[in-house]
Design goal:
Elements lengths: L1 H8 L5 H28 L8
Helix pairs in contact: 1-2
Length: about 50
């Protein structure tokens, strides 16, 4: 979202760089989210058994 705001105020014609940055950070964000979910479910999840 930050790249959209910065692109709006930037007077240079480099929208492709902001779109690329947005795609990379979106991919990284989803990847980290899925990694955290998998780690929580299968690695760090402690069972209720004693």
């Amino acid at each position: 979202m930050l790249s959209v705001v910065v692109d709006h105020y930037d007077i240079r014609n480099n929208e492709i760089n902001y779109k690329r940055f947005a795609k990379v950070t979106q991919f990284l964000g989803w990847g980290l989210f899925i990694l955290a979910l998998v780690l929580d479910l299968f690695v760090f999840h402690k069972g209720t058994r004693h």
